[in-house]
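Agenda item 2: pyridoxal-5'-phosphate complex prediction
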Amino acid sequence: MDESKKYLMNTYNRAPIVLRKGRGMKVWGSDGKEYLDFVGGIAVNCLGHCHRKVVIAIQKQAQRLLHVSNLYYIEPQIKLARLLVEHSCTDKVFFCNSGAEAVEAAIKLARKYAKDHTALDKYEIITAHGSFHGRTLAALSATAQEKFRKGFEPLVSGFKHVPFNDINALKKTITRHTCAVMLEPIQGEGGIKMPAEGYLRQVRQICDDRGLLLIFDEVQTGIGRTGKLFAYEHFNTEPDIITLAKGLGGGVAIGAMLAKDYVAASFQHGTHATTFGGNPLSCAAAVATIETLLEDGFILDNCRRMGKYFMKSLERLKKDFPSLIIEIRGLGLMLGMELTKTGSSIVNSCADRGVLINCTSGNVLRFTPPLIVVEKDIDYLIDVLEDIFARLS
Ligand SMILES: Cc1ncc(COP(=O)(O)O)c(C=O)c1O
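Presented output:
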C-alpha cells in the first residue's frame, strides 16, 4: 500500500485491502481475510472470479496466439461477433478495449452516419442528466455529471443534456443539428436510476419521427446483468447502436460497439481502428463467458431469481429502517439502496465484516455481485447491513 502511494497516480480512493485471489463469489486479501464480493469488479465478474471455463479458454488461447494485428482475420473475434449478433438486435460489431472506447466509437459512428445520410452540420448528441459514459474526453463530454467534468474544460462540443425520464425536455432540445440520443437503459454510476414506464419506447418513437439514432450504453447493464443478455430486451425498445464492456470478457478487458447494418455501413476502411481491440486473448475469454452465460439459461435464470430475492430482502430492510433508507431500485443483479446519509462508512463497516459493497453518487449503496450469487450469500450481506443499520439508527 505504501508503494502504491509512491508509484501510482492518486486517481482512486482505495479501501485498505490488497486482493490476491478470487474464486466464485469470494475474494481473499493478502492477509488471508475472506470477502464475499458484491462489487464483482463493478459489474464485471459476471460468472464469478476465475470461472473455470474462462480460465481454460484464456490458457488455451495464450498458448496458441496472443496478439496479431487487425490487418488479419482473427478467429475468436469472428466467433464472438457472431455470438453477439445472433443474440441481439444488431448486425455488426466493432471491438475495442473498454467502455469509454465503445462509447467513443458509438459517438463517431453516429456522427459519421448523420453526415453520410443527411447534413454536414448534424452532429449533436443528447444525453441524460446523471448519466455516465466514461472518462475519455468525448465520453466525458457526453457524461452529464458536473463532478466528473470539472477541471477538464473545454470539453468536446456537440453534446446536450436533458433530465432523465423527461420526454418533453428531450423533444424541446432536439434541433436540426441533432443526430442521436444516447442513454443508459438503467443509469448505473448515476445511482441505479430506472427508466419510467414507457420512457425508452417513447424515446425510440421520437428518434424515429425525427430521424435520429438511438444509442443504448449497455456497458454496465449488458451481458446478463439485469437478467437478460441486454437490458433493452426488458423494455421492448431496440436501439440502433449498443455499447458493451464490463461483463463481456468475464474479467478480461474488452469493449464492443454493436450496430444495425444500415448504421454500421458508415464505418469503412480507415474510419475507425484500435490496435488491441478484438485481440485473440480477450475474445477467447469473451466467447467462453457468453457461451457459459447462455449455455442452458441457468445463470440468467439465477440472476432473475436472485435479483428478486435480493430486492425483497432489501425492501424488508427499508421497512425496518425508514429513517435511513429512502428507496430500493434496480433490476436483476444491478441494485441500489438510496440512503438518507453518505454510504462510505457503511461500505467500510461491511468490508470489516467480510463483505465488499460499493457506493455511488455519495449515498446509493450499489450491489453488482457475480450472477452466480446464491440466497445464503445475500442473507449474509443482509444480516451484516442490518447490524450496521441498527447501530446507526
Ligand atoms: C454506462 C457506462 N458507460 C461507460 C462506462 C465506462 O467504461 P470504462 O470504465 O470501461 O471505460 C461505464 C463505467 O462505469 C459505464 O457504467
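Discussion summary: The chain has a mean pLDDT of 98.
Owner for follow-up: CH.
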